[in-house]
Amino acid sequence: MAGKLALIAAGLAVTGCANEAPDSEAQQRADAEAVAQVMAQQTPPPIELALQPITYDDIVADERLSGPGCSFYPTDAEDPFAILGSDLAFVKYEGSVQRLAADAGSGEGPFDTREKYDGREYVLKVAYDEAAVEQGDGYWAAPATARVEDGFDRQVAQHDGRLACGG
Domain spans of the chain? Predict the structure, then answer.
C-alpha cells in the first residue's frame, strides 16, 4: 500500500511539474516583453553626429596627433576627420578633438592601427578595401569608410573616403 501511495504521489508531482512548465515559459515571455518595453522607453533616439575636420592648428596643439599611423580623409576633403595610431585615435566634433582608445580585440589595420577605437560616448570603426591598396616607400592608402556608433551600437555618422598611412 505504501508503494502505491508513493507511485501516486510521484505521478502527481510529475503532473504538477508538467503543468508548471507552460506557465513558467509564459511568465518568462511576459517578463522578457516587459523588459524590452522598459528598455525601449529608456533608450534615447540616436542623434546624428557631425564629424569635423582635424586642422593643422589642432595637430600642432596636441603632439599625440602626429607621428606614425593613418588618417581618414572623407571624399574631397583636405583635412582628416580621424587620426589613427597604435594606441589612440582622434576625431573632432562639437569643436573639440576627442580621444578614443584602440580596441585590442578588434582587427589589425595598417601601420599598427586598429579597426575599432572606443571612446567615452562613441565608437569609431574604420574599414578599408584591401583589394585597392596603393603603397610605395613609406606610403600606404586605400578607399575606406569611417563609421561612428553611439553607446547603443547605432550608427550616428558615416563617411566614405580614403585611409592614408605613413611613418
Answer: 51-165
